[in-house]
Amino acid sequence: MSHYQSDAIVIGAGIVGAACAAELARRGLRVRVLDAGLPAATAAGMGHLLVLDDNPAELAMSQYSVARWKEWSARMPASCAYVNNGTLWLADSAGEFAVAEKKFGVLRDAGVTCELWGGQRMAVEEPMLKPGLHGGLIISDDSILYAPRAARWLLESAGDAVEFRRAQVMRIDDDSVLDSEGNRYQAPVMVLANGLQGSELCPDIPLIAKKGHLAITDRYSHSIRHTLVELGYVTSAHNATGPSVACNIQPRPTGQLFIGATRQFDSLDPAVEPWMLGRLLRRAQQYVPGLGDFNIIRSWTGFRAATPDGQPFIGRHPKKQNLWLALGHEGLGVTTAPVTAELLAADIFNEKPPIPKEPFDPARLQLEAESAE
Amino acid sequence: MQIRIDGEHHDVPAGMTVAAALALSGDVTTRTSVTGQRRAPVCGMGVCQECRVLINGVRRLACQTVCCEGMDVDTRSALPVAGEL
Lengths: 373, 85
Fold this sequence. Notes:
The complex is a heterodimer. Chain A has eleven helices and 20 strands. In chain A, the strands form four sheets. An eight-stranded mixed beta sheet of chain A has the order 6-7-5-15-16-17-14-18. In chain A, strand 16 and strand 17 form a beta hairpin. In chain A, helix 1 runs parallel beside helix 6, helix 1 runs parallel beside helix 10 and helix 3 packs across helix 10. By secondary structure, chain B is mainly beta. In chain B, 9% of the residues lie in helices and 27% in strands. Chain B has one helix and seven strands, in the order ββαβββββ. In chain B, the strands form two sheets. Chain B has a five-stranded mixed beta sheet, with helices on one face. A two-stranded antiparallel ribbon of chain B has the order 3-4. The longest helix of chain B has 8 residues. Chain B is globular, with a radius of gyration of 12 Å. Chains A and B meet through loops of A and loops of B.
């Protein structure tokens, strides 16, 4: 049993924890990163970097952060597989095209590079799409990357200032944490960035698990260039209370097609459910009929950590002076890891945040608890 | 029966899988990986997906496919085209 000191501790070496550790190290802190090695979201997800405009806070976060990833891309190794291939939102009806037009207006006003395409342009740009689509919206700066490697790069980029240790934190005390082997880690700044597992260490943090199914095909020579996402995604994924499925097809640099996206609220079982996988593949095949020619070589599940109001918790824990939160990102953890790290660091160093921080303030937890009484 | 492996004729007993036929031929590898390495069957039971191979122009698992007369097994060609069939 040993005692370790550092300027900061980050619990969780996924994409968010890694980004936070790298940013704190950049600010001159010596950071110890502790990770239990449990199956988690960063390695399960799609590594999609996208601008989403469901609400102003989400737009501000995702826009800022996608741009930051683009700046970093020049320095990332090839193994991070960053590709600026754009997201093409698919409109399968006049109603969905109206949604695309509205989205275009909002994004354009915010300075996001995007363009509306009619049905004919869609067929030329993406010949594997089903004929007869009304059109789409291309968001050019959206990208993809291999998130687990990007997380490792972030930790490595900090050199000696970040020390990684495989350890399972069992308890968070006032100024230190205890791991499963009785080792104590002390630091004036402790950051909780371990997603769903955060509420096991801090039961007062409300996190909801949203199970997602994914599948990946064998490698083929095919023509899909952009990440193809149906506009129905916005309505089905974020407003549903039951299980939802939406088409999200990502062309990997290997020639594989990476297929998502599903959401279930009622399960913590990591097993692939064939009925859900079937729904996922049938939905994807509705938009890309030729998908039937591809073999699926692997399918798996992951759990997103969602908060009650849909915004992550970034900032000081309202009751624990030395504990800072960076979790609850639902499906936007990879996209918003850079801005999360900058928001957190600005908060810790008492500086002006890069974007308004109020929507993410964990103190709103207290407000919910008080108004419930 | 006779099958073709990378353009060469091989005699194989009836009922043999493509994976076993490849092993019999002296080169068990079925494909080249994305990093340029040769790959071969590992689990032998249709789970690991390592033994992916082109059989009559279509990607199949060598360990799960039984040989038939005149079958064309290709372990060397580039990725098959999809979406234009």
